[in-house]
Amino acid sequence: MAQARPSSWQEKLRGHCQQLGYRPPVWNEVSDRRGGRTAWSSVVTVQGEPIPARYWYDGQYVENAREDAAEVALQRLGATNGPLSPEQRLYGGLSPGGSET
């Protein structure tokens, strides 16, 4: 039996904002030239508050920066319980049994 793909952090943040009656979150990518390369990150704005991602990424992984910013925003909004384990991050906040954490 095929298991449904877990929701992305971005989808979870959009849903949480909708539940709270907030405007939809808005993501902006930011870059920083570092030596011969450019590092990318993301800032999500929720109700006028900019919330940056924790990490910087290579350009091909900018979607990870958006996911990171969404996860941080959900933590700030109290929708998740602090930093997640590597397994929870990998599977989008699902516990090994398949239920939301």
From TrEMBL:
Classification via Gene3D superfamilies: 3.30.160.20
Domain of life: Eukaryota
Segments of this protein annotated with the region Disordered: 78-101
Protein name: DRBM domain-containing protein
Organism of this sequence: Pseudovirgaria hyperparasitica
